[in-house]
TrEMBL record:
Residues 67-147 form the GHMP kinase N-terminal domain. Its main location: cytoplasm. It catalyses: L-homoserine + ATP = O-phospho-L-homoserine + ADP + H(+). SUPFAM superfamilies: GHMP Kinase, C-terminal domain (SSF55060), Ribosomal protein S5 domain 2-like (SSF54211). This is Homoserine kinase. InterPro entries: GHMP_kinase_C_dom, GHMP_kinase_C_sf, GHMP_kinase_N_dom, Homoserine_kinase, Ribosomal_Su5_D2-typ_SF, Ribsml_uS5_D2-typ_fold_subgr.
Length: 306
C-alpha cells in the first residue's frame, strides 16, 4: 500500500468530571487526511485545506506526531501528509487530536501496523504537547480506540476502553470563537480543596459505573465538574444559559467540551437529542455570536480508512 485516506473524528475530552482522563469519540464531524509513501526520507506536509495551519513539519501537530513515530520506526521511506481540516483549531472538539492521531494511524497502516493503539497514542501525545503544552491523551484515546475511554495513567501509558450505551447521543454547540487549550489550561489552579476532589472522583467512578450498567439517569447525575468548569465557563459566553436550558428540556447532562468553547450535552435517544439541539440553538441565537450545532451518535469505531 503506497497511500491511504482516513477520517479522523472529533472528540469530547474531560466529559465534565474527568479532566485529562475521560473522553468520547464523535460521529459525522472530523478531518480527512491523505498520506502517501515517498522515496524522500522524512515527514512532509504537502497540503492543508480548511484552516490556515503551518506546513512546516515541526510546527504542525500532525507533523510532530508523525515525526515521533518515524524516528522510532526508522522506515526506508518518507511520508507526505495532506490535511483536509474540517474541525476548527481551538474548537474544544479535538482539532489538534484529530491531526495528531490521524497522522500516526495512517502511517502505521502504511507500515503494516507495527504499533498497537496504545503505542500510537504515545506518539500522538507529542503532537498534543505542541498544541497545548501538555501531553494529554484524553482526546487521542477516543479518536484511536473509539467510544468512551479512560486514561488510567500516562507513565506508563494505560488506556481503558469503556462501554458506550447504544441510545446515547451527543449534541455540540460550537461558538465561533477560539479558545486555545494552552490558554484554557493556564487559568486552572494548581491546588484544589479536598472536598472538591472528593466530589470529582466520586463522579468519575459513578460515570464509569453508569456506562458499565447502561444507566442513563446515573450517567446524567455524574456530569458535574466542580474543579475546571467554574474557571473555564467564564471563557464561554452564555455557557450557564445553555447548560440550564439543555438540562431543563431533558438532556442527561451538559458541560464544556474539552477546553472549550464548544459545549456538549448528552441525551438518551435521537428525539431528545434533537429537542436539546433546537433548544440550545434558540438560546445561542440571542447572543449575536456565530455558532453551529450538531447532534450525532457516539462513534464506537474511531479513526477509519475511507
Ligand atoms: N494540524 C493541526 N491541527 C489543529 N491545530 C493545529 C495543528 N497544527 C498546529 N495547530 C495549532 O494547535 C492549536 C489547536 O489546538 P487546541 O488549542 O488544542 O485546539 P482544539 O481544542 O480544537 O484541539 C492551534 O493554535 C493551532 O494553530
Ligand atoms: N484535557 C484537555 C482536553 C483538551 O481538549 P480540546 O478538544 O480542547 O483540545 C484540557 O481540558 O485541557
Amino acid at each position: 500500500m503506497k497511500d491511504i485516506k482516513i477520517f479522523s473524528p472529533a472528540t469530547v475530552a474531560n466529559v465534565s468530571c474527568g479532566f485529562d482522563v475521560l473522553g468520547f469519540c464523535l460521529d459525522t464531524v472530523g478531518d480527512e487526511m491523505l498520506i502517501r509513501k515517498t522515496e524522500n526520507k522524512g515527514i512532509f506536509i504537502t497540503k492543508i485545506e480548511g484552516y490556515d495551519l503551518p506546513l512546516k513539519t515541526e510546527d504542525n501537530v500532525a507533523g510532530v506526531s508523525a515525526l515521533a513515530l518515524y524516528e522510532d520506526a526508522k522506515p526506508n521511506c518518507g511520508f507526505e501528509i495532506e490535511i483536509y481540516k474540517k474541525i476548527k483549531p481551538g474548537s474544544g472538539i479535538g482539532s489538534s487530536s484529530a491531526s495528531a492521531s490521524g497522522a500516526v494511524y495512517a502511517i502505521n497502516e502504511l507500515l503494516g501496523k507495527p504499533y498497537n493503539k496504545t503505542q500510537l497514542t504515545r506518539f500522538a501525545m507529542k503532537g498534543e504537547a505542541l498544541a497545548s503544552g501538555s501531553e494529554h491523551a484524553d482526546n487521542i484515546a477516543p479518536a484511536l480506540f473509539g467510544g468512551f475511554t479512560l486514561v488510567k495513567s500516562t507513565t506508563p501509558l494505560d488506556i481503558l476502553q469503556l462501554p458506550t450505551p447504544s441510545e446515547l447521543y451527543a449534541t455540540i454547540i460550537h461558538p465561533q470563537i477560539e479558545v486555545k487549550t494552552s490558554e484554557a489550561r493556564a487559568i486552572l489552579p494548581n491546588h484544589i480543596p479536598l472536598k472538591d476532589a472528593i466530589t470529582q472522583w466520586s463522579n468519575v467512578g459513578s460515570l464509569v459505573h453508569a456506562l458499565h450498567i447502561n444507566d442513563y439517569e446515573l450517567l446524567g447525575k455524574t456530569l458535574n465538574d466542580v474543579i475546571v468548569e467554574p474557571y473555564r465557563s467564564q471563557l464561554i459566553p452564555s455557557f450557564d444559559a445553555v447548560k440550564k436550558a439543555a438540562i431543563s428540556i431533558g438532556a442527561l447532562g451538559c458541560g464544556i467540551s474539552g477546553s472549550g468553547p464548544s459545549i456538549f450535552a448528552l441525551s438518551k435517544g435521537q428525539k431528545m437529542a434533537t429537542r436539546v439541539e433546537n433548544t440550545i440553538h434558540d438560546v445561542y441565537s440571542k447572543t449575536g455570536i456565530d455558532f453551529y450545532t450538531f447532534t450525532c451518535k457516539i462513534n464506537t469505531e474511531g479513526i477509519k480508512v475511507i
